[in-house]
Amino acid sequence: MIIEVLSILISLGLLMFFAYRGYPVIVFAPIFTLLAVVLSGISLLPSYTETFMTNAANYVKSFFPIFLLGAIFGKVMELSGAASSIAHTIVKALGSNRAILAVVLACSILTYGGVSLFVVAFAVYPFAAAIFREANIPKRLIPGTIALGAFTYTMDALPGTPQIQNIIPTTYFGTDAYAAPVLGTIGAIMVFVGGMLWLDRRRKQAAAAGEGYGEGHTNEPELIKNETYMNIWVAILPLALVLVGNYLFSRGIWTVETWYDPAILKESFKIEKVKNVVSSWSLIISLCLGIIAAILINVKQVKNKLASGLTAAAMGALLAIFNTASEVGFGNVVKTLPGFKLIQGWIMGASDHPLVSEALAVNVLAGVTGSASGGMSIALEVMSKQYLEMANAAGISPELLHRIASMSSGGMDTLPHNGAVITLLAITGLTHRQSYKDIFAITVLKTAVVFILAFAVSII
């Protein structure tokens, strides 16, 4: 059994190492998956074609519309100038003396409004570089700052966030995107405050050492001069439509749950419970409304670049979902290996409380796959029924299971092989060696907050 567990750890370690060195996850995830299979003495080709590829394809089938529409929404927000206007307004209002806070808030608003995490990094980076340069804050702190604003509380903690990490649990627990709003809000505040304290401490350390923005950086954005920005209230309209629409269509007066006859859905489309698809349907509709609004607020500027923009968005969505799907395939093969049963038994035996056990399971698998959505999908696919039974026996609401699972997915997922981390560093022209320490600190903070909340609820 030790060798079988080591086969998993060796494969994971190699995947993280190669990702750290800049190699594509979409290529090396299947390679190291098959290495784990060989070391475990399992059939090689069936594991690849029937387990790895089948689960990767199922993930694409379930979530590609959200990835694609999210990427398109972010791109048209960028093309229309709305994303730039929002970032510029926040930076201008707070000033260079609050550069870190300005960047975190800009990322938070865009992410909570439904803009893809990858697009947020592209949209905010030019302003982050400009204001960090003006405040003479080391450029190496930009990735950690963007990660705090885009990869943490607005991704999975705040109620109603339209990011995929908040939608996946609805399929398993019959909840919606607004599950456990109080717990999620408390967690978001804890992560925000803790993250800001860490980043400000790092800024002060750099200042005391006489370190400034630095010279000779790569991927430096062009200086923005005399650019005209649209009215901020117009710019946030598409974001508001996504948020309000998502609420109305998921649990409001226009909920899509009542649009179709459940009997027809069950008979013709094999949908056993309408609640399990309501969140995805409502988000698809809301993102479509947001895309239309983002185009209409500045048709003149968007129309000339729409074709190339849609192509870029589609390519970005394909890369993002196939990276994640490859990691999901990796995780699903791992769960069939003999060594995983030992790991699963350890996870389930670590705590009798479903929230604590769930937080541990999702964090471990998000770390293994390097994907928040991928790791959570695997954990819930394998163990959600057990957690529901445990929660029902203990009188715990499925909404709490939803929120803890969602927040846990954004914990240890951001290890070096995480696609979002790799993309963020590429955008900013920095390396793991320069900036990963701060991203990892945010990762540890986020993970700690989830366990604090899970333990707190377990003793109440």
From TrEMBL:
The UniProt record lists the keyword Metal-binding: no
GO cellular component: plasma membrane
InterPro entries reported in the protein's UniProt record: Glcn_transporter
GO molecular function: gluconate transmembrane transporter activity
Keyword tags: Membrane, Transmembrane, Transmembrane helix
TM spans (from-to): 5-20, 26-45, 99-128, 178-199, 229-249, 278-299, 306-325, 360-380, 439-459
PANTHER family membership: BLL7963 PROTEIN, GNT FAMILY GLUCONATE TRANSPORTER
Name of the protein: GntP family permease
Record organism: Brevibacillus antibioticus
